[in-house]
Design a protein that fits this description.
The chain has no helices and four strands. With about 70 residues, the chain is mostly beta strands. It has a four-stranded antiparallel beta sheet with strand order 2-1-3-4, with no helix packed on it.
């Protein structure tokens, strides 16, 4: 199921946080090329972090998360 209202943070707050919308999506707009750490968190769920590399051949991309309920 989609999770709305989750906080999405890029590189420990280097950019302003985003919040997922009703369909669970988020958008940071244009991000410089390089390797970035994306963290998603919401009360009641286990926080997840993924590392993604944006290259010249892939300036736009999708990083999906599956949030599990917190124990």
């Amino acid at each position: 199921a989609n999770v709305s209202g989750a906080t999405v943070r890029l590189n420990r707050g280097l950019f302003p946080d985003r919040t997922t919308i009703a369909d669970g999506s988020y958008n940071f707009g244009t991000i410089p090329l390089g390797t970035w750490e994306i963290t998603v968190s919401k009360a009641g769920f286990v926080t997840q972090t993924k590392t993604v590399t944006i290259t010249t051949g892939a300036p736009n991309g999708t990083v999906d998360f599956t949030l599990a309920a917190a124990p």
